[in-house]
Structures
1.
Amino acid sequence: MKKFFIYSLSVLLLQGCMVAAKPYTPLLDGVGYLTTKDKPTDIPDTIKESLMTLTDEMIDHFILENKNVFVSAPSLVLALAMTAQGAKDNTLDQMMNSMKLSDLSMDVVNEGLRALQLSMIQKKGIEFHLTNSIWIRDTFKQRVLASFLEANKTYYAPMIASGDFNDPAMVDAINDWVSVATRKKIKTAIDEPIHPLTQMFLINTLYFKGDWLIPFDKANTVKDMFGAHSVDMMAIVENYLYTKQDSTQYIALPYKDSDVVMVIALRQDGKPTSMSQLV
């Protein structure tokens, strides 16, 4: 039996937008993100809890590499959820379990993740751009069910296109999309050549940019030791929400004109802090 590979790529960042490419043909009219002005419905608590659990597992996995990492459970789940629109039976069960959503129906997951996306992109005072895209090998597109495309269009609004995966220009087109979506912070999402068994790429990008409510003065940036390394450290004397629990210190840095805050956790032993400890 011939095997096919379908990749779900979760491309994480703090910045984003979009570009049109040449060597592919759009299949639907999705622009890559939800454009509705509808107010987001409440995000189910089960989805919030699954994202926290998945974040902890991602941190536990990547921390084994003993280097700095930046992870986003929403980005991973959105890419997997788009893929899951074409799954069924045991495959679907395994995908739902990997997303920590096995107790929910696909309809509930889709509605919940749609609400999550809307809550992100409709945040005030910050730039939070989210894009989804699906790239299909041209010789495989006839095997892609219309129901898969329509479900993704309804809940994730990806840009969907097909092209010749043997053409190096297709690799450039996909990477250009990601580069524009991440403001050139991530310039390479896939490498050439594309494996001959790869039939589809499903890509999510997240871009965040916000101004601090209380800006840091660059003149106060100094070199200091962080562990065994000398790094640039911002410095400011201000009043912030701060607490210490056991051996972990927490501080919340608010963004300007927004209800979004950055919460920083610093454990005395240097180990990562779980999401359950932050909320």
Note: The domain at 5-209 is CATH 3.30.497.10 (Antithrombin; Chain I, domain 2).
2.
Amino acid sequence: MVLVSSCMQKDLAWIGPNLPVSTAASIMRCRGVGSLVVMQDGRMIGIVTERDIVHKVIALHRIPEWTRVAAIMSRSVVSIASSRSLYEAADLMSRARIRHLPVEEADGVVGIFSARDLLRPLAIDDL
């Protein structure tokens, strides 16, 4: 059984809630990620994704430099433990209709698991 811990991205990309969406987009581009965990006072308070930026800012003709991350982030975050299986992660993502899962342990967020991470074991097995 392949676990989330073996495929998740451990180098967590994050942003503060009061920064502009343009900064979030720049971080995503530079880091090559599709989501950022929103952190405040050392704890996760939300998540912002490329999809959030497109649907809640660009499509509504809002100005990314003036729109704060807090205004578009998802506050009800679905997360998963690193000890869960890829099957459980895929099932959770499918049921919640999301593509990014923060990975949490007792000491907080330890990584992020995305839909593309589901393919990682297949690529390794094919080598």
Note: The chain has one domain: 4-126.
